[in-house]
Design a protein that fits this description.
By secondary structure, the protein is an alpha+beta fold. The protein has a domain at 181-278: 2-Layer Sandwich (Alpha-Beta Plaits). The protein is built from 8 helices and 20 strands. It has helices spanning 9-34, 45-99, 107-130, 220-229, 231-234, 380-434, 438-464, 469-473; strands at 132-133, 136-137, 145-149, 155-159, 170-177, 181-188, 202-207, 210-215, 236-240, 245-253, 258-262, 275-278, 283-288, 291-294, 298-299, 303-307, 313-318, 328-335, 338-341, 349-352. The chain has a 9-stranded antiparallel β-sheet, with no helix packed on it. Strands 8-7-11-12 form a 4-stranded antiparallel β-sheet, covered by helices on one side. It has a 3-stranded antiparallel β-sheet with strand order 6-10-9. A hairpin with a 2-residue loop joins β13 (283-288) and β14 (291-294). α2 packs antiparallel against α3 (107-130). The longest helix has 55 residues, at 45-99. Mean pLDDT is 80; it is low at 147-163, 294-305 and 307-335.
Length: 474
């Protein structure tokens, strides 16, 4: 055994051990006081990298849940306004049903019905123009999709919803079958001034259920005028050809257009007393970027109602006269889609389209050139037409609400549920890596405290060893 004054090996060893214990104890105190196992990159570099990624996910998922909640509130705002639109449409329909009861109504009652309908239309347009979520307009069409003509043809129009189309897509519409009006022909009467019958007495025939009276003094031109005088009720216009024949032509195109004549002894071509004709719907092909998305289109009136492969309706109307056949046109899609970020990563979005619900956008495609904004129940025909238009308008709004409801339930609320679960699981993973296991750490802390106390005691003992050399020096 060697004894030295300048070197205390035992003391140095005790000091080194005590220093390590003090450092570990400080780290343990930091972990216990902060609750984190990783308080800096030096604690666990790999764990820090993983936990920071997980922490970013948790934070992003939390914001995505808030975003989805905002989206649900937006959809509820729009749906609530559409509920009021539905109420207005039902009210207008009730008024149209009342106005159609021409046998009991006088002019004043019908005018009162029309005034109420006009006020309801104004209220509907106000809802469409002013419903918003924050500064975002919801029902004015800015949150929908429109197709604007880019070619030189006359077909143009809007459509309300078209999943799968993107901003800037080109839609080509090629009509392969022309829409036709219903047509019947009278016999050749001769000159306009000739009489339609040489038999004495008064006679009548019916066009679409409306009586047309004539007698031996009725000329061809007078008969034409009589038919055209009730055109609003029959939906039929009479024109005289150069041969003295009267053409009876429906005012609209498509399968809903009818010319039915009965009790017409000596009036119709071929000597028949009754005949009927129905219009023909148009057929067309729609392509997007060269790929067909629709096989058949049909008309109702002089416009086209298109359906794509997803069942979405596209309403197109003629902006000029002439046939709807042998025409092609291209449309540039402009998307005002509402896009919601409902995920924590790139492109995890959901889209919602809300159609324009102004009165002139509802009930289209039923009667040529007419919609909710053009409803006029002051005539019997107008009241009947109003019922058809309003039924279509109610269907239009129902479809919009159904789409919003499906989006809310199956997309947004479902996203919130899945995001919440994902956030919980990822947060648990991040906690496993980053957070302190308090029970384990307290056990470690207690051990380090004991080691510290032992180290202090042993350092004191080691420092006493050089004192033994004094006895040798005395």
């Amino acid at each position: 055994m060697s004894l030295r004054i300048n070197l205390n090996t035992a003391g140095m060893a005790a000091h080194r051990t005590l220093s390590g214990t003090d450092s570990a104890l400080s780290k343990s105190i930091e972990r216990l006081s902060s609750g984190f196992r990783i308080n800096g990159a030096g604690d666990d570099p790999a764990g820090l990298v993983i936990s920071e990624k997980l922490r970013a996910q948790v934070s992003g998922l939390g914001q995505a849940i808030k975003n989805a909640g905002d989206a649900v509130n937006l959809v509820k705002t729009a749906e609530g306004a559409l509920n009021e639109v539905h109420r207005l449409l039902r009210s207008m329909r009730d008024l149209a049903v009342h106005a159609a009861n021409t046998g009991a109504n006088d002019a004043a009652a019908v005018e009162a019905d029309q005034r109420q309908i006009t006020n309801a239309i104004a209220s509907l347009n106000k809802i469409a123009a002013e419903t918003q979520f924050g500064n975002r307009k919801l029902l004015d069409g800015s949150a929908g999709i429109k197709a604007n003509v880019t070619g030189s043809y006359v077909i143009s129009g809007d459509f309300s919803y078209a999943t799968g189309l993107s901003d800037g897509d080109t839609i080509s519409v090629n009509v392969v079958t022309a829409a036709e009006k219903a047509v019947l022909y009278t016999r050749d009467f001769g000159a306009n001034t000739d009489y339609v019958t040489d038999q004495a007495g008064s006679f009548y025939f019916t066009i679409n259920g409306v009586q047309i009276s004539y007698d031996s003094t009725t000329t061809v031109s007078a008969l034409q005028s009589a038919i055209n005088a009730v055109s609003d009720e029959t939906g039929v216009v009479a024109t005289i050809t150069t041969a003295g024949q009267i053409d009876l032509v429906s005012t609209t195109y498509g399968h809903s257009a009818t010319v039915a004549v009965s009790n017409a002894l000596g009036i119709l071509d071929g000597g028949v007393t009754s005949a009927a004709d129905t219009g023909v719907d148009a057929a067309a092909q729609v392509t997007v970027g060269g790929s067909a998305v629709s096989d058949a289109l049909w008309t109702s009136g002089n416009g086209l109602i298109l359906k794509d492969s997803l069942g979405n309706q596209i309403v197109l109307t003629e902006s000029g006269g002439g046939s709807t056949g042998d025409r092609g046109s291209q449309f540039q899609v402009q998307v005002g889609t509402l896009i919601f970020q409902v995920g924590a990563y790139y492109n995890q979005t959901r889209e919602v389209n809300i159609a324009d619900v102004h009165a002139n956008k509802l009930g289209t495609g039923v009667i040529a050139g007419q919609d909710v904004s053009t409803i006029d129940v002051t005539t019997a025909t107008g009241a009947q037409n109003a019922l058809r238009i309003l039924d279509q308008a109610i269907t239009d709004v129902s479809n919009i609400r159904a789409n919003l409801g499906a989006t809310q339930k199956n997309v947004l609320e479902s996203s919130i549920n899945s995001l919440t679960i994902a956030k919980e699981n990822i947060a648990a993973s991040e906690s496993t890596i980053r957070d302190t296991d308090m029970a384990e750490e307290m056990a470690e802390f207690t051990k380090l405290q004991i080691l510290q106390q032992a180290g202090v005691a042993m350092l004191a003992q080691a420092n006493q060893a050089p004192q033994a050399l004094l006895s040798l020096l005395r």
